[in-house]
Write a structure and sequence with these properties.
This protein is of the alpha/beta class. The protein has one domain: Rossmann fold (3-Layer(aba) Sandwich), CATH 3.40.50. Helix content is about 30%, strand content about 25%. The protein has five helices and seven strands. The chain has a seven-stranded mixed β-sheet with strand order 3-2-1-4-5-7-6, with helices on both faces. Helix 4 runs parallel beside helix 5. The radius of gyration is 15 Å and the shape is globular. Bound molecules: S-adenosylmethionine. The site of S-adenosylmethionine has 21 residues, from helix 2 and strand 2.
């Protein structure tokens, strides 16, 4: 079940989801590789064969590359914005977007509502049947609040019946809690 740590929750949700997926050649996307923790998690999933990752900071790409160097998976990282995702791949089985800034880096370099929204729209279009996308938003800073609101509005009015959108956050906290969106694409028979 859920814990206070929202990243843990995102990982658990993906792990649980995969228990119902009977495929071993999954393509995963890390839309914001940052320090490489989500990338490492994706690489640890048995059913994942190939992972593509994006970040606009060289520091993040280098750190993530080092963190996953011993993972026995095909991983490609690009110093590019995630909203160009459709130029790199044609399908996504698992996606993770952990938005905001690099916790150990320059906190003025943050994801922006406009490009994040575009990246999310494109990733949803690339989601395979039974695919899953998690998006962590942080409302505790100005751009993060705007980003959360725009993503929330977009996903709340997403009326494709094959897509289900869920939202998880911790209510009893004095700090602004990250808000986790989970998007699941149905399996069509
Ligand atoms: C919260 S961190 C990601 C944490 C990471 N997933 C991890 O496990 O360590 C957010 C990252 O998004 C990156 N970023 C900002 N704008 C971006 C964009 N347009 N495309 C891709 N990455 C972006 C930042 O450079 C930062 O490294």
């Amino acid at each position: 079940m859920f814990e206070r740590n929202m990243t843990y929750n995102a990982h658990q949700i993906i792990k649980n989801h995969l228990q119902n997926i009977n495929k071993n050649d999954l393509v995963a996307v890390d839309g914001t590789v940052g320090n490489g923790f989500d990338l490492f998690f994706l690489a640890s999933l048995k059913q994942v064969e190939y992972i593509i990752g994006f970040d606009i900071q060289q520091e993040a790409i280098s750190t993530s590359c080092k963190r996953t160097k011993d993972c026995n998976k095909q991983i490609e990282l690009f110093l590019d914005s995630h909203h160009h995702i459709d130029q790199y791949i044609k399908k996504v089985d698992i996606g993770m977007f952990n938005l905001g800034y690099l916790p150990t880096g320059d906190k003025t370099i943050v994801t922006c509502a406009k490009t994040s929204l575009l990246a999310i729209q494109k990733t949803i279009e690339l989601l395979t049947d039974g695919g899953i996308l998690t998006i962590m938003t942080y409302s505790g800073h100005e751009e993060g609040y705007k980003e959360y609101q725009e993503i929330d509005k977009y996903l709340s009015h997403f009326y494709d019946r094959s897509i289900n959108v869920f939202n998880l956050s911790l209510k009893n906290t004095h700090k602004e809690c990250p808000s986790l969106f989970v998007i699941k694409k149905s399996i069509t028979k």
